[in-house]
Amino acid sequence: MQVQNWNDYQAFLAVALSGQLARAAANLGVDATTISRRVKRLERRLDQTLFEKTRTGQILTEAGEKLLEAVELMASAAENIDELKHSKTGPFGNLRISVSEGFGGWLLSMHAQKFIEKNPRLQLELVSGSGFLSPSKREADIAILLSKPRSGPIRAKKLTDYTLRLYASPTYLKRFGNPETLSDLATGHRIVGYVPDLLYAPELQFLEEYDPSLVATIKSTSIIAQLRFIESGAGVGVLPCFIAGSYPGLQRIIPDIEITRSLWLVTHKDNETLSRVLAGKNWLQHLVSEMRNELVPPS
Questions:
Q1: Taking residues 192-219, what's their average pLDDT?
Q2: Topology of domain 161-261, per CATH?
Q3: Each residue's pLDDT tens digit, 21-41
Q4: What is the pLDDT of residues 177-203, one digit of tens each?
Q5: Beta strand residue intervals within the chain, DSSP E
Q6: What is the architecture, at CATH level 2, of domain 3-86?
Q7: Which class is domain 93-160+262-295?
């Protein structure tokens, strides 16, 4: 296969997985005009229409769906060839991990130094925020999700449980008193929480699980911002213990109640044995084992 032809197939794959020319171009490091030209050239060569244009981007036609299966196999084979070439020098390339802000932006970032030093040929990319990238669409090598995916060409394994509890600062408690029950909390206190209509996962509905009558009056899509609100004395809120534990000044309130959530490690079935993915999985599994008492502290 000519290199030029392979570039066309790579362009097709990038558009198929991202659904947009601009996003595909950004992923490949070229401009959208180049991506469009390569896809059109491939369509002419195959005498098939591979995409339909919509208001939001490109969707695969039936012919495109059939081609996608073959091109994904080609991409996996190409990665395996690279693996053979670099097998003696250790993991290499970009390792992209999609993860929630709390676990990724807080816990992983604080414990990444040893992993980075051990794997100098890896470029680590932690993608955290509102939503997750999809391993099934090859947007990420590894995703740490709040629930187990039910479909797709993926492998999913439970990574760990983690505990969340209610916290407040001494400044807040001195001013407003220490609530002893959820009823006390619902009627006389300022509550910190997520913005309900901007939740990207139902597992983040912590307050509703505690008590449907609890309504946040101080809200943020960021768990780090919520931490700052609580730490500064603005209100009471739910925090993962692995975050709150770093702030010994925070006080646990209503200690007989807590919430448990799970994290799932997800990879694409075709790249789970690549050295960079194996290195990332081993790191994550070793880390949660070491951090067991911080993730699920004794009651």
A1: 91
A2: D-Maltodextrin-Binding Protein; domain 2 (3.40.190)
A3: 988 888 788 999 999 999 999
A4: 999 999 999 998 999 999 998 888 889
A5: 51-53, 58-60, 93-99, 122-128, 142-145, 154-168, 191-193, 218-219, 236-240, 251-252, 259-268
A6: Orthogonal Bundle (1.10)
A7: alpha beta
